[in-house]
Structure formats: structure tokens, C-alpha cells
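stage 2 :: seqdesign
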């Protein structure tokens, strides 16, 4: 009898232990337990710790409440300015309603991943390349709103979405590199020009001050000499006054040339009396033709083509008057010689 009671007690304890083992559940701190009794959702969500369920009647599903980091696969797309890019992102989300995450969607992780991929492709098509590269914060907010809208019904809250990388074609990278280089060069030139402008203004102010005080220029020159001579070098500095250079420059300038006066045309001179007298005294030395012409008056020299020669009175010898008109006409051989050749008197 006692043996039978012992056997029954051992069997009951064993059955209780088996039941306890089958019904016992442990929910971790970052988890929540959703109980389904005969397929129906129980309103109470089991918190962290030890809990019991009816074996074979109830089923406990644990839902992780931690923030999940999920990478979004890279998506190829064309931006609004017709540039082919490849963009990948990362999404951070967590479950805020364990019952909805179990009941409303089959696999909330897969659903969130697919929604993130489609939203990323939509954002790529609506944005420009400059926005993808420099205005990512705004795109991240828009992408977060696009994913969070349907995820709210799944008991999932999108915590953050970040665009991780934007891959560009090689040709586009080279073009952007040239553009960036040109922009940097432009800014460098603008800064250099601004510096030159400010320096010129300061130099103009310094020049005005030094012009008012000539001693300041001499002091500045001495400071320059001291600065050059401070180091051990072989440079020889010789101050040279600028006024002397200006004086030499004015001395080298040529004087203004005066226009020469136009020479006045002289009238044709008459034949000298000595030549006529020589012809009259020695008629035989001039040949037969010249002797026949000794009694004739000497023809006046023709004037220059530019100015007509004035008429001169006939010149007579010292002892006799010369006829006013010739006695006979001169032949072709007795015509007066040209102006260029003069007869020489023989003494």
C-alpha cells in the first residue's frame, strides 16, 4: 500500500515537472511575449521575466524590441538631371507594438527592407545629382517619411535613414574633378585680386603720407637697408634718389625740332662784265664764229624754270656803247649756249 502511494506520488511529481518544463517560458529584458491561445491573440503581452503558458493550448512568440540596423542594397537609378548613379543606404528601426508586428505583417523585417529599397529608388528619381552629393540631410528626412508611413501600421517605428554611398561613373567623376579644380582656381584668383586691391589702397595711403612727410621716405629706405643687411649675404644695397633718375630722363628727351625756313628764290644774275670785256678784247681767240659774234650783245642767261628771271638792262663796255638790237639774226650754230656751260675768258 505504501509502495503504491509512493509510486503515485513520484508519478505526479514527474508529471508536474514535465508540465512545468513544457509551460515555463523566459522572456528577456529586450523582448516582449505575444501569446496566442488556440490561434487567438491574448490581450496581455508578456513582459520580461519568467512566464507560463498552457502547453498545447497557448503559443508564445517573442518579439525583439531593440533598434535594428538593416543595410539597404545598392539601387541603380537615373537622377532628375539624367545622371546614372548607384546609391545604397542604411535604415534604423525598432518595434513599438509587438502584437501588431506579429499579427499585421508576416515578416516585418523583410517588409521594411523592401519598402526601403522602393523608397530609395523613388528618391533617386526625384532628386538632382547635387542634392544626392551635398543635400543628403533633406533626402534622408524624405526617405524616412516615405518608409515610416506604412510601417506605422506594422507596429514598427523608423528611427533613422541614412544614404551611405553614391557611386558615379568614371566619366562623371572626371568631369566633377575638372569642375572642382576650375572653381578652386576661380576662387584663388578672386582672393588674389582682392588682396592686390587692398594692398594698392594701403600703398596709396602710405604714398600720400610719405609725400606729406619726405623724411618718412628716407626712414623707410633705411629700414629696407637694415632688413637686407640683417642676414649674412653678399648683397650690396646702394640707395639711389628717384629725383636724379627723373632729371636724367628729362635730359635724354630730344628738344622739339624747328621747321627750316623756305629759301627764297634768287633772280638770275646777269653775265659779269669781265666776261663781256674779255670777249671784246680778244675776239681772235674765240674762233671764227665767235669773232663774228663779238659785236653782238651777250644773250642773257635763261632763268630757272620755277621763277622767271627779271629783265636786266644791257651792259656796255667801258669805252663804247653796245647796240640795243642785233644787226643780224643768229643762225642755228650761233644760238646761245645752255645755262649749265659758261664760256671761259682767255687772258
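stage 2 :: out
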Amino acid at each position: 500500500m505504501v509502495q503504491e502511494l509512493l509510486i503515485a506520488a513520484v508519478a505526479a511529481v514527474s508529471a508536474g515537472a514535465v508540465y512545468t518544463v513544457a509551460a515555463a517560458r523566459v522572456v528577456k529584458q529586450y523582448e516582449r511575449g505575444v501569446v496566442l491561445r488556440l490561434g487567438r491573440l491574448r490581450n496581455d503581452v508578456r513582459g520580461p521575466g519568467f512566464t507560463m503558458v498552457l502547453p498545447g493550448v497557448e503559443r508564445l512568440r517573442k518579439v525583439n524590441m531593440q533598434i535594428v540596423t538593416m543595410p539597404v542594397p545598392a539601387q541603380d537609378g537615373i537622377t532628375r538631371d539624367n545622371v546614372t548613379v548607384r546609391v545604397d543606404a542604411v535604415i534604423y528601426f525598432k518595434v513599438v507594438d509587438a502584437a501588431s508586428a506579429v499579427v499585421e505583417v508576416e515578416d516585418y523585417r523583410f517588409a521594411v527592407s523592401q519598402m526601403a529599397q522602393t523608397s530609395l529608388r523613388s528618391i533617386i528619381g526625384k532628386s538632382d545629382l547635387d542634392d544626392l552629393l551635398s543635400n543628403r540631410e533633406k533626402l534622408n528626412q524624405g526617405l524616412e517619411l516615405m518608409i515610416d508611413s506604412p510601417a506605422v501600421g506594422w507596429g514598427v517605428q523608423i528611427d533613422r535613414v541614412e544614404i551611405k554611398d553614391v557611386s558615379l561613373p568614371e566619366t562623371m567623376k572626371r568631369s566633377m574633378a575638372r569642375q572642382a579644380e576650375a572653381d578652386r582656381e576661380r576662387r584663388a584668383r578672386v582672393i588674389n585680386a582682392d588682396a592686390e586691391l587692398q594692398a594698392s589702397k594701403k600703398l596709396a595711403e602710405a604714398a600720400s603720407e610719405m609725400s606729406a612727410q619726405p623724411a618718412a621716405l628716407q626712414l623707410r629706405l633705411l629700414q629696407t637697408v637694415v632688413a637686407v643687411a640683417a642676414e649674412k649675404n653678399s648683397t650690396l644695397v646702394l640707395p639711389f634718389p628717384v629725383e636724379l633718375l627723373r632729371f636724367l630722363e628729362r635730359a635724354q628727351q630730344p628738344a622739339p625740332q624747328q621747321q627750316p625756313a623756305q629759301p627764297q628764290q634768287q633772280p638770275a644774275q646777269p653775265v659779269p662784265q669781265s666776261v663781256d670785256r674779255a670777249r671784246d678784247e680778244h675776239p681772235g681767240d674765240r674762233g671764227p664764229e665767235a669773232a663774228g659774234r663779238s659785236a653782238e650783245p651777250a644773250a642773257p642767261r635763261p632763268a630757272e624754270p620755277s621763277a622767271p628771271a627779271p629783265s636786266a638792262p644791257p651792259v656796255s663796255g667801258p669805252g663804247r656803247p653796245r647796240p640795243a638790237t642785233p644787226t643780224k639774226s643768229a643762225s642755228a650754230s650761233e644760238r646761245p649756249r645752255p645755262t649749265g656751260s659758261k664760256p671761259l675768258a682767255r687772258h
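stage 3 :: structure notes
- Residues 283-299, 302-321, 323-334, 338-347 have pLDDT under 50 and may be disordered.
- Strands lie at 24-27, 31-37, 40-46, 49-52, 58-64, 68-78, 84-95, 156-167.
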